Structure formats: C-alpha cells, structure tokens
Amino acid sequence: MIKFTVYGKPAPMGSKKAFVRGGRAILTDDNIAKRKNWANAVSAAAAMAMHGRTLLSVPITLHVAFFFSRPKCHFGTGKNASVLKSSAPKLHSQTPDLDKLIRCLADALTGIVYRDDALIHTVLASRLWTTTQERCDVEIQFLEPT
After folding, report:
1. What is the average pLDDT value for the chain, to the nearest integer?
2. Angle, to 10 degrees, between the axis of helix 32-50 and the axis of helix 98-109?
3. Is the omega angle on the peptide bond into residue 59 within 30 degrees of 0, that is, cis?
4. Is 87 left (phi over 0), alpha (psi -120 to 50) or beta?
5. Are 4 and 42 in contact (CB under 8 A)?
6. Domain boundaries along the sequence of the chain
7. How far apart are alpha carbons 101 and 6 in whole angstroms?
8. How many whole angstroms separate alpha carbon 30 and alpha carbon 27?
9. pLDDT tens-place string over residues 80-96
10. What is the CATH number of domain 2-142?
C-alpha cells in the first residue's frame, strides 16, 4: 500500500475546447496554470511516498479524498462569523467536478507510481469540507492478480 497527502487546493483537469481559425485547428485548456501546479505537487508527494520503488504494473485500487474549505457564505456574519449556517450544505456537491479531480490526480501519478493509469481498477473518491488545510489524501492498494 502507498499512502500520501498533497497539501493545497486540489485542481481539476480543465475543459478542453477546439475551434478552427485561419484553417488551423486550435485546442485550448481553461485551467492549465492551476492544474499544472497541482499536478506537480501531486507528483512530488507521490515520488516521496514511492521511496525509490519501481513503477507499479499490477491493477490497483485508488482511494482519494479531496478536502475543500467552505466558502464564507456558509457562515454567519459579525459575532457568528465562525458559526456554520443551518442552510450550509453538509455534502460537497458543487464544482470542481469529482471526475475532473480524479483525472488530474491519475494523470499526475502516471510515470511516478504506475506505468499507466489504465491500471486503476477501482476508484473510491469523495469531496469533503474541511476546517483545516485544503488537501488531498491518497491511498493506493495493490490488487492480487487472479
């Protein structure tokens, strides 16, 4: 098993758009700067967790929890600024999309933890609220070949 935490605000894989200009196809990525910084942090944390092990080439299960700070609108004002409103959502069910967060993470682990993200057999992922540091907790389990 490999476990590690990546500190900082998790970034999703950006949406890509293509269009034609002057007879040439142009491809844009709307989240490239934040995604690259996050992916670099993921790769660095994963490399430290690997401790020089060889790349995995067996099926794996990926357990990941993405933690985000609540926006200020979830809290009261004035003396209640630290009190969560009763109307604040219990579950994190807004942007960024969970599937885009997983795609960015899985791509950043390729070549560091496993040879190809096609080795991911099972994913258990969640987006949660935190009152501490925004982060991503990752656990990778090896599956026994049958």
Report:
1. 90
2. 50
3. no
4. alpha
5. no
6. 2-142
7. 13
8. 10
9. 999 999 999 999 999 99
10. 3.30.1330.70
Encode pLDDT of 11-33 as tens digits.
998 766 777 888 888 766 666 77
Q: In the numeric block, which tokens belong to residue 69?
A: 């700070």
Beta bridge partners of 122: 61
Burial 77-109 (b: 16+ CB within 10 A, else e): eeeeeeeeeeeeeeebeeebebebbbbbbbebb
Residue with tokens 């682990």: 109
d(Cα 67, Cα 112) in Å, to the nearest integer?
A: 23
- Whole-angstrom CA distances from 45 to 12, 38, 127 are 17, 11, 20
Fill in the DSSP letter of residue 89: -
